[in-house]
Amino acid sequence: MQSFTEENYLKAIYSLSLRHEGDVSTNALAELTATKAASVTDMLRKLSDKELIHYKKYQGVRLTEEGERLALQVIRRHRLWEVFLVEKLGFGWDAVHDIAEQLEHIRSDELVVRLDGYLDHPQFDPHGDPIPTPAGKMPETGYRKLTEVGVGEDVRLMAVLEHSTEFLQHLDRSGLTLGCIITVKTVNDFDKSLLVRTETGSTVFASQDVAKNLLVS
Amino acid sequence: MQSFTEENYLKAIYSLSLRHEGDVSTNALAELTATKAASVTDMLRKLSDKELIHYKKYQGVRLTEEGERLALQVIRRHRLWEVFLVEKLGFGWDAVHDIAEQLEHIRSDELVVRLDGYLDHPQFDPHGDPIPTPAGKMPETGYRKLTEVGVGEDVRLMAVLEHSTEFLQHLDRSGLTLGCIITVKTVNDFDKSLLVRTETGSTVFASQDVAKNLLVS
DNA sequence: GGAATGCTTTAGACATATCTAAATTTTCAG
DNA sequence: CTGAAAATTTAGATATGTCTAAAGCATTCC
Ligand SMILES: [Mn+2]
Ligand SMILES: [Mn+2]
Ligand SMILES: [Mn+2]
Ligand SMILES: [Mn+2]
């Protein structure tokens, strides 16, 4: 049985190992968990003792099979709760992440099974992220970042990588909603910013910082 | 802001102060929170520093107004989540208490407001307990214990005082459901056990231990 | 190849919440 | 009213998770 804190570290390791190739560094974990490197080292020793991570001093860290299974369970719960908060309670997609950060740690297998059924076995959360299977596998999506799309291409906005309230409210104001079709009109060579046309015909400016957090297919 | 643990102590103090007149004792709290008296004393010092309880060494403890307000907020959340688990997720009333013990600590005012609306502002939880108001008042019910009912009286089962799975499953097997009408047929002078007739016409035996946990009106 | 630099780990503390054992205070019985 | 029993508090420890400061590796840049 893991504490909240251990679950959060497992999730953080999983998340960082997707972002870059190779093992996850102590400093990266310290930044993501908003702690100090020394605290991370302590926790890595503990997770290693429990055989949830592969860890050699100074060499970075990687989840074991069991560690990944647990991380995906937490992510599954997080995303199911986000669906609940949006679909059933009527929260905006910009307001659910912090509450789901708490709800994801509620311990009850039966609860997850019933919640999943009540929500009609959703495949994606309100941010377009795929919901891991009960068995602990993360579905593949094959989405690309909007920054990789060529001028003239029509694509559909499928997911966002950033969950902060500020970012999501910015998208709302820009009329960029999940599922909408967008066309890349121009790419600025200097700052890689984009001009895109939305379904409604309006033209929206997207800095590289915004575009790299938008996933399309 | 209170920790989970502090919230649980506040709830425990509230609950015990209903059970008996006068201040709550250290030992009673130790038993209810499944800790030792020494641990309770430590926590009482802390809650007293925060002015959530009135506490004088060796003299027992009592909630301040602020302490009671917080305790009732926790109880409100607990009972709303129990309603959700039964009404929306289809849990049995015998399976929800432990999950609600976790959910009651989720911190988000907005969440409670929306959950309450989603459930249609319920007045009672699945065990018949009244749900405290958003302002922090506990509604009066005026229920009596079944042990105080005279032979021949017709009463309606309104609530249960004990929430354990075993007790509630026993009631299910006996056909005693919330809202049902029961008639006291005989009271055994020796052990105070009862024979009651239910709506369906069947006769059910209830030991004093069972009857004192049944509230009727 | 050998510093200098930057990560990372260790050392030593602190806060929370718990425990056992011992000391203290209150209560109650004779 | 007084001494024993019961209840409560204090003393000293443990476990978790965090921190700062100092020391130990690793990489890289002459
Ligand atoms: Mn999220
Ligand atoms: Mn999400
Ligand atoms: Mn309950
Ligand atoms: Mn209840």
Task: Provide structural commentary.
The structure is a homodimer of 217-residue chains. Chain A is an alpha+beta fold. Among the domains of chain A are: 4-63, Orthogonal Bundle (Arc Repressor Mutant, subunit A); 144-216, Ferrous iron transport protein A (FeoA) (SH3 type barrels, Roll). Chain A has eight helices and eight strands; from the N terminus they run H-H-H-E-E-H-H-H-E-E-H-E-E-E-H-E. A six-stranded antiparallel beta sheet of chain A has the order 3-8-4-5-6-7. A two-stranded antiparallel sheet of chain A has the order 1-2. In chain A, a hairpin with a 6-residue loop joins strand 5 and strand 6 (194-198). Chain A is globular and about 55 Å long. The N and C termini of chain A lie far apart (39 Å). The mean pLDDT of chain A is 95. The interface between A and B is medium-sized, with 18 and 18 residues. Bound molecules: manganese (II) ion (4 copies). The structure holds a DNA duplex (30 and 30 nucleotides).
Globally, the shape of chain A reads globular
Q: Pick out the low-confidence regions of chain A.
A: none
Can you say what the CATH homologous superfamily of the domain at 144-216 in chain A is?
Ferrous iron transport protein A (FeoA)
CATH topology of the domain at 144-216 in chain A: SH3 type barrels
String of helices and strands of chain A = HHHEEHHHEEHEEEHE
Number of strands of chain A: 8
Main sheet overview of chain A = 6 strands, antiparallel
Say what oligomer this is: homodimer
